[in-house]
Amino acid sequence: MLNKYARAFFTRVLTPFAALLIRLGVSPDAVTLAGTGGVVAGALVFYPRGEFFWGTVVITLFVFSDLVDGNMARQLGRSSRWGAFLDSTLDRVADGAIFGGLALWYAGGGNDNALCAVAIFCLASGQVVSYTKARGESIGLPVKVNGLVERAERLVISLVACGFSGLHKFGVPHIEVLLPIALWIVAVGSAVTLIQRVVTVRREAAEADAADRAVVQGGETR
């Protein structure tokens, strides 16, 4: 839902920065790798210690590399299957680190097994939501569905809640409740999105199979 509009906006904003990196001789793949490394470091260094504000600041600085690398590739005229594969693969790594860091916090200093389980569910469901679309497309289906909570929504909801929850350490009272609420929203939304995609793939697969049978039967009657 956010992907269409957010990507268009930030692509325009980040185009000058992407052009600067190109002039400096930086490759799109290097930006992809550096961005993922920054997100993973921010999530796994700060979040397990409960440093949600500073962890979110670090992650946010690097998470936009997902838009910068593609922008650079388009400006260079070098968009490739390899670049798309690398970008998608490392997106999964970054997402896993964010929710993994939150799970480590709740398993340790946060001392809340229920929220640890919710964070792990967010991690797993996010990966499966992405897999259902990739797998459906790999067998020739369009998977035409806009899920309730896709990657952009998961990141925005989680990072905004983490950042604001981190203000608790600066003396803002009761604001830490935002993070558990956000995790539950992401968990439920991801489950709904997964169901939406599975139902869509099932319908599209049935339509494709019916079309194939009609072609075969039509050929036999000639």
User: What is the structural class?
Assistant: mainly alpha
| Poorly predicted tracts of residues | none
Percent of residues in helices comes to over 70%
**Average pLDDT number:** 91
**Between the first and last Cα atoms, what is the distance in angstroms?**
47 Å
Order of helices and strands: HHHHHHHH
Number of helices: 8
Largest sheet: none
The radius of gyration computed from the alpha-carbon positions, rounded to a whole number of angstroms, is: 20 Å
Indicate the overall shape.
Answer: flat
Total number of β-strand segments?
Answer: 0
The fraction of residues in strands falls at: under 5%
Organism: Streptomyces lonegramiae
Binding site for Mg(2+) 2: 66, 87, 91
Pathway: Phospholipid metabolism; phosphatidylinositol phosphate biosynthesis; Lipid metabolism
EC number: 2.7.8.-
Description of the structure:
The protein is mainly alpha-helical. Helix content is about 80%, strand content about 0%. The protein contains eight helices and no strands. It has helices at about 1-25, 30-45, 50-65, 65-75, 80-105, 115-140, 150-165, 180-220. Helix 2 runs antiparallel to helix 3 (about 50-65). The model has no long low-confidence stretch (mean pLDDT about 90). It holds the Pfam family CDP-OH_P_transf. It comes from Streptomyces lonegramiae. InterPro entries: CDP-OH_P_trans, CDP-OH_PTrfase_TM_dom, CDP_ALCOHOL_P_TRANSF_CS, PIP_synthase_PgsA1. Keywords: Cell membrane, Lipid biosynthesis, Lipid metabolism, Magnesium, Membrane, Metal-binding, Phospholipid biosynthesis, Phospholipid metabolism, Transferase, Transmembrane, Transmembrane helix. Homodimer.
